[in-house]
Write a structure and sequence with these properties.
Structural class: alpha+beta
Order of helices and strands: EEEEEEHEHEHE
Strand content: 25-35%
Radius of gyration: 13 Å
CATH topology: Hypothetical Protein Mth938, Chain: A
Helix content: 10-25%
CATH class: Alpha Beta
CATH superfamily: MTH938-like
Strand order of the largest sheet: 6-5-9-7-8
C-alpha cells in the first residue's frame, strides 16, 4: 500500500492509501472500485473501463455542490475513456482527466486540499 495522507477539512474524503485491490478513504477500507466525492465515498460497481457509461457516473453529475473536475483512475495503467462519456461530462461543466489509478488518487488529494470541487472514479488495480 502507498500512504498518501494529508490534512483534510472535517468531513472531507481523503484517500489515505491504495493498492491490494482497493482503497482506504478517510480511514475506511473499500475493496474494489470506488467513486469519491469531496464529502462522500461509495463502492462503484463497474467491471472494467470498457463498461464506463455516463449512467455509471450519475452520482458525479448529481453532486451538490457540483463537481468541477473528475479524475478517472483506469487501473494499473492509463487507458482511453470513451469520447461520448467525455463529451457528456464536459457538457455538464466537468473537466475530465484519465490516468492510472495511483496517479488519480494522488492528484485527487492535491486538488481536494487546494479546496477544489474534485471527484474521482477509481478502478482498483
Amino acid at each position: 500500500m502507498q500512504d498518501i495522507s494529508g490534512l483534510p477539512d472535517e468531513g472531507q474524503q481523503l484517500i489515505n492509501s491504495y493498492g491490494d485491490g482497493g482503497f482506504r478513504v478517510s480511514g475506511v477500507r473499500y475493496e474494489g472500485n470506488v467513486l469519491i466525492l469531496p464529502d462522500e465515498t461509495m463502492e462503484w460497481d463497474l467491471n472494467s473501463l470498457e463498461d464506463l457509461t455516463i449512467e455509471a457516473l450519475q452520482p458525479i453529475l448529481d453532486a451538490e455542490p457540483s463537481v468541477e473536475i473528475l479524475l478517472i483512475g483506469c487501473g494499473a495503467s492509463m487507458a482511453y475513456v470513451d469520447e461520448a462519456v467525455r463529451t457528456k461530462l464536459r457538457a455538464s461543466g466537468i473537466t475530465v482527466d484519465s490516468m492510472d489509478s495511483g496517479a488519480a488518487a494522488r492528484t485527487y488529494n492535491v486538488l481536494l486540499l487546494e479546496k477544489r470541487r474534485v471527484a474521482a472514479a477509481l478502478i482498483a488495480a
